[in-house]
Design a protein that fits this description.
The complex is a heterodimer of chains A (187) and B (471). By secondary structure, chain A is an alpha/beta fold. Chain A has one domain: 3-Layer(aba) Sandwich (Rossmann fold), CATH 3.40.50. Chain A is built from 7 helices and 12 strands. In chain A, the strands form 3 sheets. A 6-stranded parallel sheet of chain A has the order 1-12-7-4-2-3, with helices on both faces. In chain A, strands 8-5-6-9 form a 4-stranded mixed sheet. In chain A, a hairpin with a 4-residue loop joins strand 5 and strand 6. Chain A starts with a helix and ends with a strand. Chain B has 471 residues and is of the alpha/beta class. The chains are: A alpha/beta (187), B alpha/beta (471). The complex binds iron/sulfur cluster (SF4).
Chain lengths: 187, 471
């Protein structure tokens, strides 16, 4: 079951021009850090989620020479927006869910998970435990807004890197949000 | 930065749109570049949308979408009170505005009271409708459109030509020129990637300064008080997360009951709008940031605009309120494809704009009265509409309602004529007179010029003076 969902998600992420990797937990951090180093990332902004420590991502980033800042960061607004400091930054998120059929990750804002982490930075890496993949958007929304579960202040459905078709109707990546999106699916 | 100057007023249509509808149409038709750009845009939309019909069963989703939206409109007052209560519960402020002027006044007053000097906006037809930019600019506040297409138009001093893709009528070279003027340097790249990257940096400077973000709302979900903002660029997320205040402006009809309904509409919308099964970003926002959260606005205001919508409930035009502003009817319309959105002189163009603008303006408005005639009634719009609005029927009804002096006079003429022809005696007398007239005017068996209203008929053809014609 999970296997089929993983395959579907990988396929639909590719359609959305996002890349994906399926990794066992022991190797996920190293793979994510590698991918960031390859993209030339100098600074990573990490959601404060227990998964980061469990996977050992901060250490893996340090080994690649990437500065790792945990949310909330001490950066001011201009630094957050990449107008000052290193341009090549990467936001690392931990989605609550992902939707297999359309390549969507579901990000919930919380004190540990800023709502702007994925769009303010030039790159976006999502660390997704495979068990969190659901088949349809309706399922994801039903769970996110289920009775009894407090409604999050902001939920972002992110389906691939930012793009604009406003110039000659041709899709161009990296409009306001992330120029690239990489999803590490952890099995 | 140049900002369009318009006087704030209650109407929907642009009060200072240049010339009459006919003049704008003729002018647009003469513009070859515009036509080419519109055709390319519509063709690429058509291809992507057909793929959605083929691979994702878009057509099969229409019935449910229609049922949901019809029910939403029927239950609108209850849904709006629920929405309002839930937003307040989440710590947000809700304002119900009777008309555009009231809505614009509220937002401008708020910006002033909070000492805001720069407002960052994401694309929204509702704010275009309430003429918010004019109101803010008049108050000395800088307004920046951050959607790439809208920003390009703002720099060009033009208005949106399409609900979804505002700058489809400008090509890359024209955009590069605008960017060079704005940046005051020739150091702006010519390629698409370069132009997009340039705009990204320029606009981030604005995000860093903005004290208020203003967005529209694609859908309000009553059960949780959540506003859904659908976009591809990521600017709406920046607008709703960077500034200290977020104001969302929503047309009162844009509300659904719960997440089951929202899920369906949120799937249909990008398929119909851009021919994709998902938009890149869907931002679901419930109130301001919570305690302990480090980003997101400290204040959230939802402005719900009536603007003439409420009065349409229960009328023969009620179905127009189901619209989810996807733009599919525009792309499918042969009229819109020939002249673009600007000729309509209203933020809402194309078939839905031709129906809704005069309805929201009121029947007496000279600026929008003729809009329902911007259609060949071919029915392509109704076929394209993902929520099954019978646009061609609404256009016909809107024409009937447009009682301009000319049509009122012709109504009297037609009534008299029908009375004459209904009785055999008067009919025969009429025909006898007609035959006499034809014979008197005929030359060589043909009448080349008829008097009165018949003159138009003989302008391009002759009429035989006897039947069958005799030489
Ligand atoms: S009338 Fe229908 S097709 Fe046109 S914009 Fe509204 S929902 Fe889309």
């Amino acid at each position: 079951m999970t296997g089929a969902l993983v395959d579907d998600l990988v396929a639909s992420l590719a359609r959305r021009k996002a890349s994906a990797q399926v990794m066992p937990a022991a190797e996920a951090a190293r793979a994510a850090a590698r991918a960031m180093a390859d993209a030339g990332v100098a600074r990573a902004v990490l959601a404060d989620d227990p998964l980061m420590g469990d996977l050992g991502l901060p250490d893996a980033l340090r080994r690649e020479g990437i500065e790792a800042l945990l949310w909330p960061t001490p950066l001011n607004r201009r630094e957050m927006l990449g107008l000052e400091g290193p341009e090549d930054s990467c936001g690392v998120t931990v989605p609550r869910m992902a939707v297999a059929e359309r390549g969507t990750v579901v990000l919930e804002a919380s004190p540990g998970h800023g709502r702007g982490i994925d769009v303010t930075n030039r790159h976006h890496v999502a660390l997704l435990p495979a068990g969190r993949i659901v088949a349809t958007l309706a399922e994801a929304l039903a769970r996110t807004f289920a009775d009894g579960h407090p409604v999050p202040s902001a939920v972002s459905l992110v389906s691939g890197p930012s793009r604009s078709s406003d110039i000659e109707k041709i899709s161009t990546l990296g409009a306001h949000g992330a120029l690239s999106e990489h999803v590490v699916i952890i099995t | 930065m140049s900002t369009r100057r318009r006087k704030a007023s209650g109407g929907v249509a642009y009060p200072d749109a240049r010339g009459t509808l006919r003049e704008r149409t003729v002018q647009a038709l003469a513009d070859g570049t515009l036509r080419g750009n519109l055709e390319t845009a519509a063709a690429s939309w058509g291809e992507s949308r057909d793929a959605m019909r083929r691979d994702h069963g878009l057509d099969a989703m229409r019935d449910r979408a229609r049922d949901i939206r019809r029910r939403n409109i029927r239950e609108l007052p209850a849904l709006l009170s629920e929405m309002q209560a839930k937003v307040r519960e989440a710590g947000g402020t809700v304002v119900r505005a009777q008309d555009g002027a009231e809505a614009a006044r509220y937002v401008t007053g708020l910006a002033r009271a909070r000492g805001v000097t720069v407002v960052a906006k994401s694309k929204s037809m509702a704010t275009e409708e309430i003429k918010l930019n004019e109101s803010l600019t008049d108050a000395g506040i800088e307004v920046v459109e951050t959607d790439l297409g809208e920003w390009i138009l703002q720099l060009a001093g033009e208005r949106p030509s399409h609900i979804i893709a505002p700058a489809v009528h400008l090509n890359r070279g024209q955009v590069a020129t605008l960017f060079r003027e704005e940046a005051g340097t020739d150091d702006v790249p010519d390629d698409r990637e370069g132009l997009v990257a340039h705009a990204r940096v320029r606009l981030r400077e604005k995000f860093a300064q903005a004290g208020m973000g203003v967005s529209g709302v694609n859908l309000g979900v009553a059960s949780t008080g959540t506003v859904c903002i659908v976009e591809n660029e990521g600017n709406a997320r920046l607008v709703t997360s960077q500034p200290r205040i977020h104001v969302a402006v929503m047309g009162m009809e844009r509300v659904v009951a719960d997440w089951d309904e929202a899920a369906h509409i949120l799937q249909v919308l990008p398929m119909a709008a851009i021919g994709q099964d998902a938009a890149n970003y869907v931002n679901l926002i419930t109130g301001p940031r919570r305690e302990g959260e480090a980003d997101g606005p400290e204040e959230f205001h939802l402005v719900i605009v009536d603007g003439g919508r409420g009065a349409l409930r229960g009328t023969e035009f009620e179905e127009a309120l189901s619209c989810i502003r996807c733009g599919a009817c525009l792309y499918s319309c042969p009229m819109w494809k020939s002249v673009g959105g600007q000729a309509y002189g209203s933020p809402y163009s194309g078939p839905i704009g031709a129906v809704i603008t005069p309805l929201l303006e009121g029947p007496a408005s000279p600026t929008s009265r003729d809009l329902p005639f911007m259609s060949s009634l071919c029915g392509a719009c109704g076929e394209a509409c993902p929520v099954g609005i019978p646009l061609q029927d609404l256009l016909v009804r809107a024409r009937a309602r447009a009682s301009s002096p000319a049509t009122r006079r012709s109504a009297i003429v037609f009534r008299a004529w029908s009375r004459l022809w209904r009785r055999p005696t008067t009919y025969r007398a009429w025909m006898a007179g007609w035959r006499l007239m034809l014979r008197a005017r005929g030359k060589g068996g043909w009448v080349t010029r008829l008097p009165g209203p018949g003159a138009g008929w003989t302008q391009v053809r002759d009429m035989p003076s006897r039947w069958p014609p005799r030489p």
